[in-house]
Amino acid sequence: MARYGRGYPVPARRVAPPVSTLPPGPLNVRVTDVGPNSVTVAWDPPEAGALGYGIYLDGVKVGIDQTGTTFTFTGLVEGRAYLIEVDAAAADGRSDRLQLQVTTPDVTAPTVPGGLTVTGRTRTTLTVSWQPSSDNVSVAGYGIWLDAQQQGGDQGGRTYTFTGLTADTAYLVEVDAADPTGNRSARAELQARTAPDMPPSTPPNLRPTSVDYTAFSAAWDESSDEDPITGYDVALDGDVVAVNQAGRTATFTGLVENSDHQVRVWAVDRLGQRTLVPAELIVRTLDDTPPTAPTLTVDAAEESITVAWSQSSDDFGVVGYRVDVDGEAVHSTSGMDFTVDGPVLRRHTVTGLTAGLEYGVRVAALDTLGQESADNTVTVGTPPVPYSAIESPVYRIGAWAGNARDAWGVDWVVEDAQGWASTPDVRPRLARLGGVDGAWAGAGQYASRVVTLSGVAVAPSRAAMREAKQRFLAVLEPREIGVLRVEDVLRTMQARVRLSDMPPPQDDGSLAFRWSLTVKATDPRRYAVAPVSATAVVASLPGEASLTLTMAGTYPQIPARMRLYGPIKDWTITHEESGTVMRAMTGSSLPADPQYSLGFDLATRQVWAYVPPEIWPVPRPGRSAVAHLPAWFMLLPGANTLTLAGQPIAGVSGSPRLVVEAFDAWV
């Protein structure tokens, strides 16, 4: 038994579908005629008939009910959409309305576009514009015509550009307007002409690129034109020298020095048109006057010649000097050389020469044109060595030489040489100080080099023997520092020495005596005679520049001298191979004046500040310009790269430089 009520479901009730109670409406409502201002509709009556029919236009009833089944709406607007409705009236009410959407046709064309005019023209284009047209409905677009040919479809804008036209040609331009139903206005007409084809522009930037005494060259930039440029006509002093040449340069030769010449250039295009106004240029050939020849002062040593020269003058300006020896260039300078010994003005020492020979020394002044002064070669002879070798190696201190025959005919024969060719003993260190300060870092250091030479001297006479003994005893004073120079078939080496012992010579026959001397070199290195030097120049600051010295010696630590010239601030000097960096004290700077510089002696670990002599006559200690605990370094056998870097000094221009000089050293 089913139970209903609180807590129990209530069964759903069936509801019958609604039944319309309105009377039936008209049937088959339709348009039977339509015009721009009227619409006729018709319908069929319902089966049960109707008392009358209501007619509605856009929801508003037109008049009263009518009994007929047709109706004509008049006074309508063309091109407009209307909602037409019809319902039926019966005794029990009115039926639903039957609806019909009807649009009256648009038969009125837009007005002709006005103000058709040309707004832009080139030789291949025409741009036109016009005023807007009006229409009873709307304007859908404009048709553009050129010589009766429509240019694509209708467009919405009121400007148009015709392209691909012919220069200086007349065209018929037409524009009409169209509405959405396709009604078109009459065409507005315009006669328009493209711009004429202009000749190329004057070639720009005609300029001389090189000028000599009897020749010069000129160049120019490309002309502009609507057509491609095919070439250029060139004239010199009124005579055409090139016709339609492709290049934009010209060289004129066979001219007279120190004379003016007129250059004209026209551009020519593909149509054969030529520049109306040519580019013009006046060029004067050079006056062939070389620099004046410097006056030379030459001093010769056994293996070197030092030449100094006066300043040269020139009408175009002297840019530098070249030192020649026997016709070969050995040195070039702008006039001032920066060396580790300070700036040198118009002076240079040529090394590596041979004693006792004559050399032709010349200094040529060079001007901005590459001209050089007249030949001022001076022949100078290097003094001959005061001995001739009789054996190898030759040991020499001052004017005395062992294994040689001196100028008095005495043969000095070295029978025993101790300490020169051997490696000095290693003295162990008590502490490692690194590259910061004090002695050079290492497990130990070499002791002083002691060299003992002994042998026999043979003289041509008793008198020559006596004089030879006296000369020998005067070779080196006890407190004097001399240079022991040893020359063998491979190389020449030297060391700074002091006399340790010189026993009196002992006779060994009537014309011979035995001799012996002992010298001590505190620095155990054996150095080359000629130095190795290089310079690093920083082009602009902040920036850096590097130099490389390749040391051929075998000593593990080779000292060097350095000289730093400004202008530079907060500089650093880096030995790339060891990574050691020497730095300036923060804020320290060097001016651009080359009389101000810093000198570094890597052997003694001293820094010297150089200033103009009128401020301080001698170098002063310059350690205060270097950061505390400077990272000292020495050069190594092989390549050594030193890099100078730093910051600019406000308002000061110039190129700072680092000059380094070292001597190859052997153990």
Automatic annotation (TrEMBL):
The keyword Transmembrane does not apply. Residues 25-111, 112-197, 202-288, 290-385 form the Fibronectin type-III domain. Keywords: Carbohydrate metabolism, Glycosidase, Hydrolase, Polysaccharide degradation, Repeat. Pfam families: fn3. InterPro entries: ECM_Regulatory_Proteins (IPR050991), FN3_dom (IPR003961), FN3_sf (IPR036116), Ig-like_fold (IPR013783). This is Fibronectin type III domain-containing protein. It comes from Nonomuraea purpurea.
